[in-house]
Design goal:
Elements (H helix, E strand, L loop, with lengths): L1 H13 L10 E6 L3 H9 L6 E5 L2 E8 L1 H9 L4 E2 L24 H11 L3 E8 L5 E7 L10 E6 L7 H16 L6 H6 L2 E5 L4 H9 L10 E3 L2 E2 L36 H12 L2 E9 L3 E4 L12 H8 L20 E4 L10 H9 L2 E7 L3 E3 L2 E2 L8 H21 L18 E4 L3 E6 L1 H4 L2 E6 L2 E6 L12 E6 L7 E6 L2 E9 L13 E3 L6 E5 L3 E3 L3 E2 L4 E12 L8 E7 L7 E6 L2 E11 L6 E9 L2 E12 L15 E2 L9 E4 L6 E8 L4 E8 L4 E4 L12 E9 L2 E9 L3
Parallel strand pairs: 7-8, 7-11, 11-14, 12-13
Antiparallel strand pairs: 1-3, 1-4, 2-3, 5-6, 6-8, 9-10, 12-14, 15-16, 17-18, 18-21, 19-20, 19-22, 22-23, 23-33, 24-25, 25-33, 26-32, 27-32, 28-31, 28-33, 29-30, 29-32, 34-35, 35-38, 36-37, 36-39, 39-40
Helix pairs in contact: 5-11
Amino acid sequence: MGFNIRVLAVIALLVPSVVVGQQLQMTRVRFETQQDLQAIAMRGHAILGIDAEDGVRYVWVVASDVQRSILVSDGHDVSVPPTISAAGTQAINYPDFDTPVTGLHDRLATLAASKGAVTMDTIGFSLEGRPILALKVGPADESAARPNVSFAATTHAREWITPMMTLGLLDYLVDSLPNVPGGQALIDSRDIWVVPVVNPDGYQYTHDVQRLWRKNRRDNGGGTFGVDINRNFPGLWAYNDIGSSAIGASETYRGTSGGSEPETQALIQFHREYPPVIGLSYHSFGNVILYPYSHDWGVLPPDLPVYANLAGSVLAPAIFDRNSNSTRSFYTSGPGWKLYAVNGDYTEWLYRELGTLAFTIELTAGCCDAGIQYGFLFPDDSVQIAQVVSDNLPFALSMIEAAGDPERAIGPSGQMAEGVYFETAAPSVRVVGQSNFLGTTAVVRGVNGQQTVPLRGGELETGTLRQRRSGDVTQVTFPGSVDISPQLRGAVIHYADQGTGGAEWQGWPTDSGGVTGNTSWIGWQDTLVSPEITTWGYERLRLSFWNRHFGSIGRADFRGTVQFSLDSGITWRTADVVVGLGLNWYPVSVPVNQSTPSIRFRMFSDSLLWWVDAIQVLGDAAARDLDVAGPPITARVSENPVRSDGVYISWPPAGDITEVKIFTFRGDLVFKTDVPSAQGAFRWDLRNVNGSPINNGAYIVIIRMGETVLRKRLFVARP
């Protein structure tokens, strides 16, 4: 086998190709519009990232001299900034595949032979006959009771940092994790599979001939070579010519059919036999965590709450970048189309066919080494490589642990995934949750009557742990309510639509095109602010809005920030951050988890071209009958437990003076005050009657309004 591989490698050097002899370089292409961006993709270029400099936007691609000339002839402004050269001496820290002893093939075989906890199998062969190797860490036997977790790398040949990530992961799982408390038990309860080199032919070619080669080594005819394995998976293969290409010379050439390549077939057969609960695919570069869906902008997975919880956010990152010269301090996350829409990719196939919660990790920022952009050419430096591995190990381990019960796994925010919730109420009702809560119809009530809306869920709306059902609201004007079942009622407390009158929201200009009409708000470097919105009597508040945006998921400084205020705009708290490329309208649903008499929202756009429409403030209506005038007689608090430096206590206005007293659970008076009843609320700064800060613990709030006495338990748990 080894002799044949080497002969084939030599033959490959002699085969004429449009790439051999041409220099592939990282290339910046300036663009201005969505149409410009799509035109670049349809030329067959893989969009590697979107960036900006002095207000000018550009994309990164890898291109030859000929390809750059074509882009220029198309009218694009093209440049090749200083980058680390792809040519040079043999790599020190990046082994090739074939070389005896030191090559990856032999290194992996040695690891499996020397470590009792590791077994190795060949799951298929490449076009040129190289084995595609899978290493298993865990018990040697097979058991359906143990969840499978998979890690794959080097789907794209030039991404040399990715096999090093899997080698570092294997070393940690074998040599270090068993010595961590609970580590051996975790290994014994999982079947952990690692495929370090999905594309061994292409990887060897990057060592022997062309460092920035991406695809496998399929002879496409006509002098072109290679299929992009990550565009070759069935299902949504060839969904369009933007996310993959039908051109053999293209970097994103998808092949003649879904699953046409032996490397793709090997993974498909392997995963069908051992379906993973969670799967990670390592790529570079970009510092992002991507998950389905990928094929079209704005399409959200039904398991979005689980994905988003596990992958973290700008506010609670799952992976930090601690490389000394990195331009980005953490990895951002989102559906794959937030980087750029692709089809026929590995993770989307895993999710749709096998129900695997699948993630793509784009390792490293791509910049900088001694001030120079390195892109795919991560420095040949063992210390920096080890740092990438160290940065990414916690997320990998969290995925191994989460595979036991992804729905109840604790994410980087310290929370579990949301259960059942409304994504939006207009222009369509969209509800996400377990199927037994969702129902098949919604009764929608508004200021002009009601409508019964059939709820549907298609193939893309059925996930592993959640489903989404939706129905169009065509006859009802909000505010109002949405009833799905006795357990699931939503109130549309506030609604603002630029197309039908949303003047109470101020700060952004109007643009043509909207999700409900002909106009929407548009922001760039400014703030859209809501009026004061009365929310007394509602719980589980949520801000929902439809949006699209033009940014870069790898640039978290290009962001749209969503904030709320419980004190009429004196102080603001950040609830969510929107990043990335979203060229189609889709809903964002932001939980506030506060009970408050009133609330304000604002959206600040910081270098993110951001369109917003159909803004809705939703609340849990289960505690309040919308057909009854006035809220129930009960006391409410803005936060419980209280983790900030103060809490709002509110009540239904009645009488002249309201007496508020706060006691410990032992009955000791802590605080008291009188408040005009019409005020309906006051803010307690967590100090006692002497002005000293109180201790964390449990308290009872007593509110007396004439003959009416309200009681509320309050827990203080400040950090």
